[in-house]
Design the sequence.
């Protein structure tokens, strides 16, 4: 019984660590989408609800494959996650840009309960 409990605890810990970076991409200040245009100071991000202008500054952090990156890695057509603040003009100032972001796998569907 203890062995089963240990295996479960390890599996739970491993799954939580594998999705740890995604916690940054939850809430009102998180945006996920595809890059449609790139400029020196930002990019256009097509999300499920529309297209946003994402700006970045010298303080913006870039990450690709869980490693530090630069704005040069932002390319048209790739999926990106952004954690930032919405500006009064509707644009977003990025605090963090996760390059090549992929959605977490969908939860498995539960089988119908049979009586």
Sequence:
């Amino acid at each position: 019984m203890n062995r089963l409990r240990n295996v479960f605890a390890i599996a739970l810990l491993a799954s939580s660590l594998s999705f740890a970076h995604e916690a940054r991409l939850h809430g009102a200040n998180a945006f996920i989408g595809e890059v449609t245009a790139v400029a020196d100071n930002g990019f256009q991000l097509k999300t499920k609800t529309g297209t946003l202008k994402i700006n970045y500054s010298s303080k913006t952090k870039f990450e690709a494959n869980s490693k530090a990156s630069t704005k040069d890695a932002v390319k048209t057509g790739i999926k990106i996650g952004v954690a930032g603040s919405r500006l009064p003009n509707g644009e977003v100032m990025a605090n963090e840009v996760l390059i090549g972001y992929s959605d977490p796998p969908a939860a498995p569907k539960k089988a119908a309960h049979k009586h």
